[in-house]
Amino acid sequence: MRAGGGASPRPAPPPLPAATSATATLLAPASVAMPAPRLAHLRRLLLPLRSAAPHPLAANPGLQLPGPPVHPSLLLPRAMAGAAHAGVATGSAEYEEVLGCLGSLITQKVRADTGNRGNQWKLMTKYVQILELEEPIAQLKVIHVAGTKGKGSTCTFAESILRSCGFRTGLFTSPHLIDVRERFRLDGLDISEEKFIRYFWWCWNKLKDKTGDDVPMPAYFRFLALLAFKIFSDEQVDVAVLEVGLGGKYDATNVVRAPVVCGISSLGYDHMQILGNTLGEIAGEKAGILKKGVPAYTVPQPEEAMSVLMHRASELGVSLQVVQPLDPQKLEDQPLGLHGEHQYMNAGLAVALANTWLEKQGHLDRIHVKHSDTLPDQFIKGLSSACLRGRAQIVPDPQVNSENDKHGNSSLVFYLDGAHSPESMETCARWFAHVTNNDRIQEVSMEQPHTDRNSRKILLFNCMTVRDPQRLLPCLLDTCAQNDIHFEQALFVPNQSQYNKLGSLASPPSKHEQIDLSWQLSLQRVWESLPNSNKGLNGANSSRTSSVFESLPLAIQWLRETAQQNQSTQFQVLVTGSLHLVGDVLRLLEK
């Protein structure tokens, strides 16, 4: 391959220096002066553990690289870096004040702390009383969904279906990717800044007046759930679709005592330090949203989980029905709005939930069925128009387009999926293999001038420290390998949102502070230890397949420079491991 469609290749880039810790790449250009302590720190990081190796993407002599990733503290001043990560500007100073107040509710406790459970959960009842929300919550017509995987997608599908049926909808999901207002949708749109501010201060002031030592201010998610109840009640939504935040039994959304219908999406191993170490224990927590006399649905589950769900449903006298994946033929050739084969499972559950809600509310006359073997028109419209960012989302980088490509194909494409459990990693890998293989087939079948474009696959990864990378990364890598997908480079970065918190004006630490990359280095060590991680170009073994970046903007800049200098190659970047990371990438791409 020759860069620029036939131009003479540039000299090969210099080899990377020896790796940090395992094989981390943290580099600083020699021409930039550094403070002595910072330089000493870098020297300690870069102590050679083995001989230097060429960059994995440099194995092909025609592939031009912009040089090794530079140390982030040398790329931009911290203030500029903070602004770069702020993303789309939010609005008023008052909104920033609101976000600051919200940020103060984020505790530093480990999420598994027993304070999240038991008697501490009973505080939710007091908060509801303080805000005088008992009756408003009782009046809401709720669809309540728990699960490990797919609960957000299921809620999104269900809301979209009922909105297409003409109802005023409220949707509460988590986490947000860029702006906290994403968690509160009214009629399919994020709540406006004006309304958010108004409802926030109403709740905040009442709680501040009535809380103290005995009853502290609610923690972050609990406050957001209370805010959702206030918003949906005052906005007089016809249906409130609520996604459980964590678990079910002790989740803040579980103050709803009589939902119209409940759903439990696919279960798997996640939040084990809180929910339990077995699928049975996890299922028991999820089953906590089931209520006596309330119809409930789930999807096919592992036997251990299903037996617990069925036992709990039997105790409550609930008929827990198992829903199969939606048959694509029922959509009359319309695609689902959320991509990936796994979404047919979530769509099937959403159809059952929406249909039951309509039946229990006496609104079945709202839907129109043309054929017995297809869904009602409104259901098809809702399923095909559903939108939930950060799940199986494909985003070409608008800044990197091939000048020689008349068809507007980007040389750099991001494939974003917030998978963060072993099971969802496998699903994510299958989706990535499917869409990238389809892209290649479509390009060849079109017989366009760009059909000889090569593709290079890169992983951009981070996960929270409560996750087990030795469970996540093997699932991702093995499933990709089974589908003949091999990453030529893995990039590990910290989430930028850990510095930004909530306010768009918040900045990362000052440039004199050292950023702790020990977690990213440990992720890299796990990656380098995996047998399938050493597949370089065309499956060839490579002695250097990963890098650690001190910040996400540096990783993005390196990818952009690499793609711009190799426009005959398409770089396909899978971003996964954390919805926070996915949100950070989207924020940068949309800036």
TrEMBL record:
It comes from the Eukaryota. The keyword Ion transport does not apply. Keywords: ATP-binding, Ligase, Magnesium, Metal-binding, Nucleotide-binding, One-carbon metabolism. Its cofactor is a monovalent cation. The keyword ATP-binding applies. InterPro entries: Folylpolyglutamate_synth, Folylpolyglutamate_synth_CS, Folylpolyglutamate_synth_euk, Mur-like_cat_sf, Mur_ligase_C_dom_sf. Mg(2+) binds at S174, E243, H271. Its EC number is 6.3.2.17. Pathway: Cofactor biosynthesis; tetrahydrofolylpolyglutamate biosynthesis. GO terms for molecular function: ATP binding; metal ion binding; tetrahydrofolylpolyglutamate synthase activity. Catalyzes conversion of folates to polyglutamate derivatives allowing concentration of folate compounds in the cell and the intracellular retention of these cofactors, which are important substrates for most of the folate-dependent enzymes that are involved in one-carbon transfer reactions involved in purine, pyrimidine and amino acid synthesis. This is Folylpolyglutamate synthase. It comes from Urochloa decumbens.
